[in-house]
Structure formats: structure tokens, C-alpha cells
Amino acid sequence: MSNIIWIGSTTQGYNHHTETFHNLYNKMNKNIENSRVINMKNIVTRQNDGGDVDW
User: What CA–CA distance (Å, rounded) separates 25 from 12?
Assistant: First the structure.
């Protein structure tokens, strides 16, 4: 229980901390999705022209 009090002594503070965590988590997921798309593009271009393409 002391950990929760330490993170944010008020409910508002605790909610803000949780919200920030979710934002970071969502950004991480988006970055993972973006890197998958880029990797797929790189694989396709290598198969097409045999060279690496900077996106």
C-alpha cells in the first residue's frame, strides 16, 4: 500500500501516473507496428531489385 501512496498521494496524481504509463505503452505498440511495416517493405524491395532501399 505504501507504494501507491508514494506514487501519488492524491487520486488525481495516481491517475495521471497511470495515464502516462498507458501513453508510453501505446507509443511502444505503435513503434512495433511501424517497424514491422518497414521490415516488410525492405523485404519486398530486396526481392524486387536485389538492393536495400532507405525509407
Answer: 20
Q: What is the reported pTM?
A: 0.33
Round to whole Å and give the CA distance between 11 and 15: 6
Rounded to whole angstroms, the Cα distance separating 43 from 50 reads: 10
The rounded distance, in Å, linking the Cα atoms of 41 and 45 is 6
13: amino acid identity, one letter: G
Q: H or E segment at 41? A: helix 11-49
pLDDT at 9 over 60: no
- Asked if residue 55 lies in contact with residue 38, where contact means CB atoms within 8 angstroms, the answer is yes
What letter does residue 22 receive in the DSSP assignment? H
